[in-house]
Records
---
Amino acid sequence: MSTMPSSVPQPVLSVEHIAVHFGGLIAITDMSFVVNQGEIVSLIGPNGAGKTTAFNVITGFLRPTKGEVRYKNTSLSNLKPHEVTSLGLARTFQRTSVFQSVTVFENVMIGLHRRSRSTLLDTLLALPREGRAEAELRNLAHELLEIVGIARRADELAGSLSYGDQRLLGVALALATDPSMLLLDEPVSGMNATETARFMELLNKLHGRGMSILLVEHDVPMVMGVSDRIVVLNYGRIIAEGPPAAIRGNPEVIRAYLGEGASRHAAH
Ligand SMILES: Nc1ncnc2c1ncn2[C@@H]1O[C@H](COP(=O)(O)OP(=O)(O)OP(=O)(O)O)[C@@H](O)[C@H]1O
């Protein structure tokens, strides 16, 4: 059977046999999965499953005990976080990392001034690559705020934004580094239902523009709504992987979550 080249999945991020030990505690055991070009993949799991540890390894904040992470065939093993960013991988933080005392617009301008090169962002915004002046950077900043949906707040102090809007600004700052892939650490934690719905729209928009996205997230309904594939961790091991429909009905996944619910219940 022949397949069109465009339909062949192209792995961009490969997590290969990662193990993380903290002293005697094994936080992650032999974790392998890929994120293909343009895919939204989510890593979920009950409390303590190892999600944050996995995220820290993938973003270069933590060296794994074994295994390696490759981005477009470059090993991230010995790279510093800013070197990971310059490969085109951008992350957001659970706690917002915006500059509270300057405006929303200035936050993005600072982000744009920091970046050293341009690739996908130009494609994303359909802008010319060379000879960009300050005025063009200002246009870019506005466009980024439009994309994340907070352009109307451009002149407000970042610290005065609602929690949900600060998280959206965090995504604009990540986009300002000109990434080809976004790594999002529990992006909707602490958001209300309306903010979560807006965030899901943003993810769909970025997905539509070809961004590859890895989400580490607690909110299972949200993940079900936006992901192409879901990887489920429990006690540091991958127990299931597949599209949302397959994950929803997977007995081992149900058991992992119900088990957690039951033990939580018992604790109260
Ligand atoms: N720096 C550390 N030192 C020792 N143990 C750690 C460290 N970081 C995490 N752990 C342990 O590793 C395991 C996985 O933790 P991790 O925070 O990655 O899970 P998680 O899935 O993100 O949990 P949660 O959903 O509660 O945030 C837990 O048993 C945790 O106690």
---
Amino acid sequence: MQVIATSIPDVLILAPKVFGDARGFFLESFNAQTFKASTGLDVQFVQDNHSRSGRGVLRGLHYQLHQPQGKLVRVVQGEVFDVAVDMRRQSPTFGQWAGAHLSADNQRQLWVPPGFAHGFVVLSDTADFLYKTTDYYAPQHEACLQWNDPTVGVDWPLATPPSLSAKDQQGLSWSDAPKFD
Ligand SMILES: Cc1cn([C@H]2C[C@H](O)[C@@H](COP(=O)(O)OP(=O)(O)O[C@H]3O[C@@H](C)C(=O)[C@@H](O)[C@H]3O)O2)c(=O)[nH]c1=O
């Protein structure tokens, strides 16, 4: 597995080794030993999620203030632009964002550490988005940072306004969004 840096040192792109042959391909989508050896991170995943979305759907930017979730995310059908925003006050990259194109074709994964808000926009007709999390879903602790907050200034690759859930239309501004101390 190859580890590729992003603009935020704690956010990593992982490129699994792909074994192609006449039948198709094989890859290890997660291997605890390889993950630890490649990233130096000792994390335990407790939940696997799968969402499907249509073109132009934007989910995010989500985080849990208590029970923060580290997320290992990937796309098995389609393409998204995936974003992580550092919500940790003590971090040298506090308030910064990092993004990566993840697709079924490039087979890349993104490691989004606990303490980050996370979201993605779908760039294909549909996208199947799979992710592992280091803590359980806890809706009572959920928070949503507004996807287009001007202070954060994520450069989404969007020509038209995205489709958002009712919840994501109520995302908080950077100044109002709770942070990790
Ligand atoms: C995230 C999640 C949702 N749900 C339920 C709640 C709700 O009825 C339905 C849809 O939930 P949401 O609208 O919150 O789903 P969604 O907008 O896809 O939320 C996800 O967005 C991405 C960007 C993330 O980073 C994830 O952590 C998660 O917040 O699924 C669970 O049962 N377990 C879960 O872990």
